[in-house]
Specification:
Layout lengths: L1 H29 L6 H31 L4 H25 L5 H21 L2 H24 L4 H16 L3 H8 L1 H32 L4 H19 L3 H8 L5
Helix pairs in contact: 2-3, 2-4, 2-5, 2-8, 3-6, 4-5, 4-8, 5-6, 5-7, 5-8, 5-9, 7-8, 7-9, 8-9, 9-10
Length: 251
């Protein structure tokens, strides 16, 4: 009996291996040409966005720690992890001989960055956590998932490591919002109304460059909305509330 199981398992493994090989071969046929000028031009902006996104995440976690002093140690660890990601993505650009367009990236994040700073000054922790722990994290994870399928081998390995980290670390914002939902729900929904439409605008702004990298705008938005709604569900909102919040993306 045990031997039969082992044989079956081996056959399944072999079958999976072949399927994976076939899909890998198929994927490699659909990969963009990483050496063209058009690819490198688009990559200079996309790469800058992920570098700046990780820097923003680092700075935001350090700032959030000023509002939750008892979480300082853990949030500092998170912030350091984001800097490690930034170094990885900087190496991805260097590997392709591309200089990241950081001026573009800073402008790209400016509205979200500004809203975070206003909330921080007012001590609106819920809004800060919505922007960083829900919107920016969901935006990053969904984009990384889409990018991994079409990335060059070096960047693919780096991005897979980053995604693994994102899932490994405890999402403190999500946990805090879950624990304090009864008192922060109103602010959460108001902050969502203001900030979720910015994510859609950001995706629209980068759609053309993403397309050159073989990343589909619709797929990016779909992945983002799934990650975002899953987080809201985890926090404890019901389906009706989540649907109401998601409607803010349709502007």
């Amino acid at each position: 009996m045990h031997n039969e199981l082992k044989i079956t398992d081996m056959q399944t493994l072999e079958s999976n291996k072949n399927t994976t090989k076939e899909s890998t071969d198929e994927n490699s046929l659909n990969l963009p040409d990483f050496t063209t000028d058009s690819y490198k031009d688009a990559y200079s902006r996309i790469n800058a966005i992920v570098i700046e996104g990780e820097q923003e995440a680092h700075d935001n976690y350090i700032s959030i720690a000023t509002l939750i002093p008892n979480e300082l140690e853990e949030l500092t660890k998170l912030a350091k992890m984001e800097l490690k990601h930034k170094r990885g993505f900087t190496a991805c650009g260097r590997n392709l001989g591309v200089e990241a367009d950081m001026v573009f990236a800073k402008k790209f994040f400016s509205k979200l960055h500004g809203n975070f700073q206003i909330a921080l000054e007012k001590g609106n922790l819920t809004t800060c956590l919505l922007i960083q722990a829900i919107l920016i994290e969901a935006f990053a994870i969904s984009a990384y998932h889409v990018y991994i399928r079409v990335a060059d081998p070096f960047a693919k390995k780096i991005t897979q490591g980053v995604v693994k980290d994102e899932y490994l670390h405890l999402n403190y914002g999500q946990e805090w919002l879950k624990e304090n939902l009864s008192t922060c729900k109103e602010e959460l929904m108001e902050a969502n109304k203001v900030n979720l439409p910015l994510i859609k605008k950001m995706l629209d702004e980068v759609a053309e460059d993403a397309s050159v990298l073989a990343m589909d705008r619709e797929e990016l938005m779909e992945e983002f909305m799934i990650a975002y709604q899953d987080t809201l569900l985890e926090i404890g909102l019901d389906n009706r509330e989540i649907a109401r919040m998601a409607m803010a993306a349709i502007v």
